[in-house]
Fold this sequence. Notes:
3 helices, alpha/beta
Amino acid sequence: MQVKILFNVNVAWFLISHRLEIAQAARDAGFDVHVAADVESERERAVLEREGFKLHRIHIKRGGLSPLHDIGYFRQLCEVV
């Protein structure tokens, strides 16, 4: 059974610019890599798919402080896992 690892970031470009090597290393070590993030461009989606990661589009309001929005985000995240 392949073990899954989930990278949860608010926007995909952050993972691409700051954590891509870590995600690649996890993939290369045999993990099934999933990414939960909002995607702002087709390029971001293409990069993640080219790397073989499974993308789960989750919308998060950056800088938001609403507990209701946080509950909604948590519900979206639960659907991924």
